[in-house]
Amino acid sequence: MKNYTIKNFMSKFGKDICIVIILALLGGVFMGLDARHKRTTTYTATRSIVISHNVEKTLQSERGNTNDSIVNEDNNMMPTYKDIAENGTIAAASRKNLSKKMRSKYSSDDIKSAVHAKVTPQSLVMELKAQTGSRKDSVAIVNATAQAMQKQLPKLQPGSGKVTLLQKATVNGTTSETKPSVKKHAIVGLALGGLLGLVIVFVAETIKNFLKK
């Protein structure tokens, strides 16, 4: 059995290794630069609202387990309220609550796309989120949406609970997310480039050995 020294190994496989490394680096650099070029940052503002009936007032004229039934009814309606919050009608009403400058920047469809609502089972709290490329815009839109829900929900859903607005969204309370990740894309590029290098080396060696026969 022939023993290989490092010198012999590099002499035999050094060129192939260099090809794999170079292609891996090129892949990593290319995909990293591409991700950097496409990278965008979005800002999300959040405001919570509570939708419920005034149980204590209702109990003054009712008896029995009305408390539980009313709360359960409000809980069951939360998915419907969520759909309403994300509807174009609320988006149009929200737009009217924005400044003239904001209205020229965002259409009702833009606001509808930016706003998302979240409800948690067994909770009467709805979380409204607005996501745009600006902290201030996200804050303005989510606050305008909360106001629109307070005014429009009783009209759109007769018998719905009262909408109580919780703390206003602020610029300092926004979160940001930058996509795509340059690091992740660079790693994927390294892997793909290295894989391509291995394929090229394998094919070249296969052809070389075939021609020798």
Summarize the helices and strands and which ones pair or pack.
Layout: H1 6-38, E1 40-52, H2 55-59, H3 66-85, H4 88-96, H5 100-105, H6 108-114, E2 115-119, E3 125-132, H7 135-156, E4 162-165, E5 175-179, H8 182-212
Antiparallel strand pairs: 1-3, 1-4, 1-5, 2-3
Helix pairs in contact: 1-8, 4-6, 4-7
**Largest sheet features:** 5 strands, antiparallel
Low-confidence stretches: 55-64
The chain-level mean pLDDT equals: 86
Global structural class? alpha+beta
How many beta-strand segments?
5
Short description:
The protein is of the alpha+beta class. It has helices at 6-38, 55-59, 66-85, 88-96, 100-105, 108-114, 135-156, 182-212; strands at 40-52, 115-119, 125-132, 162-165, 175-179. Strands 1, 2, 3, 4 and 5 form a five-stranded antiparallel sheet that branches.
Annotation keywords:
five-stranded antiparallel sheet
Question: How would you describe the overall organization of this protein?
Answer:
- With 213 residues, this protein is of the alpha+beta class.
- Strands 1, 2, 3, 4 and 5 form a 5-stranded antiparallel β-sheet that branches.
- α1 crosses α8.
- About 5% of the residues have low confidence.
